[in-house]
């Protein structure tokens, strides 16, 4: 009788271990694959071809850019855009002005101003003025004024000031907004929204779902590994108890 009871206990232990193991692996696979599908639908990878956004994003860096409409772009965003006037190639720059803004540089302290408000730009390359060449522009409605963070080595809106759009590009030219740096390893991290722009009308944009996507993928991986390991462990414990 005792032997029969032990056999049944051992069987139930093995069955329960197999069920829990299979459930963990199944949920883990769903989370793992779902996270990658979510990322593919939301983000596009992009390799930065020039040093114009250094030190924020160095040449050759890999970034994750959220697919957003141009209407969602705010001041301070780093965007990927394509405009025929600029060469009809994908480019990455920072938005410093939107439709209606008066953008100028520089104040006596060497700062950029938007509608007369000095902008603190800690992301700039070097400690000099916000632009080696002074300029001013009125951004037309529905347009964006774009500058690189490496102001002495960036072909941006300042080069196109004499164009009909005063150096700006239409919001519809935006393909995506850079949300995170993915490579090299030492630079991995979220793209911060500059605090100086948050006080201006419209504020700054909100980060995309890169963090919850990462958590979902990691949680899925943990469940898969844990579930795969739990089955053999549960069966061994059941045999030991028996």
Automatic annotation (TrEMBL):
Domain (Peptidase S26) ranges: 26-183
Catalytic reactions of this protein: Cleavage of hydrophobic, N-terminal signal or leader sequences from secreted and periplasmic proteins
EC number: 3.4.21.89
GO cellular component: plasma membrane
GO molecular function, one term: signal peptidase activity
Top enzyme category: hydrolase
Record flagged with keyword Transmembrane helix: yes
Name this protein carries in UniProt: Signal peptidase I
Organism: Streptomyces sioyaensis
